[in-house]
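Could you help me review a protein record that somebody else here produced? This is what I was given.
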Amino acid sequence: MSLYRAELRRLVLRRLTRWVTVLGLVVLATVAVGVFLSNQKIDDAAWAKAEVTAEQHWQQQVRSTEQFRAECEQAAIRGEQVGSFPSDCSEITPPPRDAVSADLFLASTFDFRESFGQTLTALAATLALVGFVVGSSFVGAEWNTGGMMTMLLWRPKRVTVLLTKLAALLTGLLALAVSTTVLWFGSFWLIGTTRGTTEGMTTGAWQSFALTGLRGVVLALVVAALGFGLASLGRHTAMALGGVIGVTVVGQFGLAVLLRLTGATFVEAWLLPTYLFAWMNKEVILNDWTVCQYNAFGLCEPATLTLTWQHSFGLLAAGLVLILGGACWAMRRRDIS
């Protein structure tokens, strides 16, 4: 059996891989079921019921307004001055009929074209988390239990062994991510068909969703590779988990507080989540309200900074090269003991 197939088999048979994968799928299934149960399809009967409810609410507002105006007129006859009443009671008029729309009384419905893109971010985040945990533990456990040293006895090519393990990890995660993304598309299309609407879907809309889903898969693979590289550098799974905690708590929250105290502009541009959102949503527009450009109407127009998915790609690529390159260098240079 080749080293690649042996590593792929080891990845699939690990209990942590199975449990983390199942947990991730359960989370995604819970989201899909929640969206299904919280929405319903709007048919003629639902519209008719909403119209009746809107008419009832409008009539109630008319009666309340007429009663309020009558109280105002009675107070004016008695010569009383009440602060809640205007000086001219004729100004108290009921709202027009179109002010109370039937749309306000319709149940929530799932619009596939408008809402599906947001769910792809949740899918990508879950796959990335699964990939990071599985990737970091896959190589971290080998170092911790001594399996890496045993493997190198019959395959002494260190970097080859490390990259083969990475290839097996990415292959398994790619299969999981692609199949899960296809099921995600199908599930929410079914939700849109049965509990909402799928109208307005064009070739361009499908292409946009497909590219967003592809970026989500790429993000999961990159995050898994970063977890793999960190765990290999530290020769322990805790190195990857500790690195993430350090970056999140110290590098992100601490940096954000420091930048705000120093009055820096576009603080979010220094934070990693901003680039992850830009990667998934194609771009993120940041506003700096401390710098105003007043328009002809005297309104403040803040300075803006646009971060695109290309900026995010550069950051992810740099992190991938740095961490995986460091892991390969350390594997080649350090003693195996």
